[in-house]
Every structure is written in C-alpha cells, then in structure tokens.
C-alpha cells in the first residue's frame, strides 16, 4: 500500500505540474479543489492497486492460479487504469473550465471545454499505455527467462526483472508521449458555438500537456 501511494503521488504531481495552464488558480477554492482531488485520486488508486494482494494475504489464498492472477496478470491493467484515473481526476479543471484554443498563427480565439476534455482523455490514455505496458511486458519476458532457466537464484531473477522494467519504461516514455502530438488539433465541428462565431478556421489547436 505504501509503495502504491508513493508511485501515484509522484505520477499525480507530475501530471498536475505538466497540464494545460489555462484554468487559472486565482481563487483559493481552485487550489483547495485540486489538492482534495489529487489526494482523493492518490488514495483511491493506491487502495485499488494494493487490494488484490492484501485480499490474497488476508485469506491465505496460495493456490498457483491465484498467485498467477494476483501477482502476474492483475498488476499491469491495474497500474494502467489507476494511472489513467489519477491523470483524469487531477486535470479535471481543464474540462470543467475549458482550455485555450488557437488558430494556425497562435492567436487565442476562445476557451473550449470540449478541447479540454479531448486533451485530458488523450493524456489519460497515453498514461494507461505507458504504465500498463511497462508492468506487463517485463512479466512476459521474465516468464520466458524462467522457462529457459537463464537465472538460477531469486536474487538474480529480481535483478533481471528490475532491469527489464527499467528498459521497457525507458522505451515506452517516448512512445507514450508521441501517441498524441503536444499541440493537439480539434475540428471546428467539435467546438462550442460561441467559439465558432469568432473564427472561420476549420481546425484549431490546443496545448495537450503531458
């Protein structure tokens, strides 16, 4: 539970610091809201991530099938889903208040909730792919390493697993960041009427954040 809490605290803080800056924290209520949302998302994600292992240990479920599901199969999708969840929650002001959209010359033509929702959705999806793949692929590779009997001791296996996780994470960071461009595009038809009346552009742009 502690390690889950540390992991989601770091990713949540990173997401909050690298979001779109349009929603202005001019009032204390917005600061307070973001802190409450962030703490809630971190606590919920940490509990969800740790719950299967805690449940297994609490009820001493030690069968090979249970071990396979809880220790090998569940962590990857759980990390992916909870990472996407925390990203969406801490950046919720962006689709609640909207983000700036610009024309091709960089001129701001309005603030769009639809663009904010698209930016948050893309970020959450890329975060799910990043951490889901990072914790899934190494387990698959470790399985083949064990079958091939390339390592002899649990300590050596732990080192191999750590190396594989680090390597996959290093490779997946640029992949996840390149899934959607930093300067996102949104079509005219997807914008609010009040923005349509202020521009004739068919496509507008926004800062997606990281």
From TrEMBL:
Q: Which domain of life is it from?
A: Eukaryota
- Primary subcellular site in the record, as a coarse category: mitochondrion
Do you know which Pfam families this protein is assigned to?
SFXNs (PF03820)
What Gene Ontology molecular-function terms does this entry list? monoatomic ion transmembrane transporter activity
Among the record's GO biological process terms, what is one? amino acid transport
Residue ranges spanning the membrane: these are 35-56, 68-90, 124-145, 157-180
Q: Does the keyword Transmembrane apply?
A: yes
Recite the lineage of the species: Eukaryota, Metazoa, Chordata, Craniata, Vertebrata
Query: Listed GO cellular component terms?
Result: mitochondrial inner membrane
Q: Where in the cell is it found?
A: Mitochondrion membrane
Similarity field = Belongs to the sideroflexin family.
InterPro entries with a match to the protein in the record: Mtc
Q: How does it sit in the membrane?
A: Multi-pass membrane protein
Question: What keyword terms does UniProt attach to this protein?
Answer: Amino-acid transport, Membrane, Mitochondrion, Transmembrane, Transmembrane helix, Transport
The identity of this protein, by name, is SFXN4 protein
The organism encoding this protein is Pachyramphus minor
């Amino acid at each position: 539970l502690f390690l889950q809490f540390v992991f989601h605290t770091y990713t949540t803080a990173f997401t909050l610091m690298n979001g779109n800056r349009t929603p202005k924290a001019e009032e204390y209520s917005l600061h307070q809201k973001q802190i409450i949302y962030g703490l809630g998302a971190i606590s919920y994600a940490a509990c969800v991530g740790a719950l299967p292992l805690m449940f297994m240990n609490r009820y001493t479920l030690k069968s090979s099938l249970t071990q396979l599901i809880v220790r090998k199969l569940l962590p990857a999708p759980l990390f992916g889903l909870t990472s996407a969840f925390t990203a969406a929650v801490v950046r919720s002001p962006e689709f609640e208040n909207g983000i700036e959209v610009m024309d091709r010359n960089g001129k701001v033509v309005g603030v769009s909730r639809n663009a904010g929702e698209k930016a948050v959705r893309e970020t959450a999806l890329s975060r799910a792919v990043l951490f889901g793949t990072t914790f899934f692929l190494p387990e698959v590779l470790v399985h083949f390493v064990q079958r091939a009997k390339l390592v002899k001791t649990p300590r050596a296996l732990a080192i191999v697993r750590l190396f594989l996780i680090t390597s996959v994470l290093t490779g997946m960071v640029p992949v996840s960041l390149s899934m959607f461009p930093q300067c996102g595009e949104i079509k005219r038809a997807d914008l609010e009427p009040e923005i349509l009346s202020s521009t004739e552009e068919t496509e507008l742009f926004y800062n997606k954040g990281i």
